[in-house]
Amino acid sequence: MSPQQKALVLPRQGNFELSFRSIPSPGAGQLLVKIQSAALNLFDYKITNTDYVTHCPAVLGMDIAGFVEEPGEGVHNFRKGDRVLAHGKFTNDFTAFQQYVLTAASFTAKIPASDSESFESAATVPLALDTAVVGLYGDQF
Q: Model confidence over 118-127: pLDDT tens digits?
């Protein structure tokens, strides 16, 4: 695997640009996922013209679907090749608009192998699920 990957970055407020960045290595409790599909949400577009992004260049995107490339130390419920979906975080190594991403294994779900669910469909689940959970149970956490 090449130590560099392509990434869609926000160099500052404004438009995305194609760039290169290092492929991160998974730490304990993390997975390295090779992205097959990433959803573009209204949030990802709107954030490009606000002061919400404080570090640039920034990689955005919260909805991830792909294959486990490498499980980190202590991860026993995932293996290389598993089809997964995950919600990203607001740090460059954990965001979706790049070829490889880190995910927290505890916040990653397998896409059933017998399921005909496409990666494109799976990538629409994380933020939608989070939105529903917060709307229904947000006052409980």
A: 999 999 999 8
Burial of 100 (0-12, 13-18, 19+ CB in 10 A): buried
Beta strands 63-71 and 83-87: pairing type? antiparallel
pLDDT in tens, 86-124: 999 989 999 999 999 999 999 999 998 776 779 999 999
What's the 3-state SS for 78-109?
CCCCCEEEEECCCCHHHCCCECEEEEEHHHEE
How many whole angstroms separate alpha carbon 50 and alpha carbon 135? 24
Cis peptide leading into residue 57 (ω within 30°): yes
The DSSP string of 35-57 is: EEEEE--HHHHHGGGSS---SSS
Those residues whose C-beta lies under 8 Å from the C-beta of residue 45, and which sit 6 or more positions away, are: none
Average pLDDT of 47-66? 84
pTM: 0.89
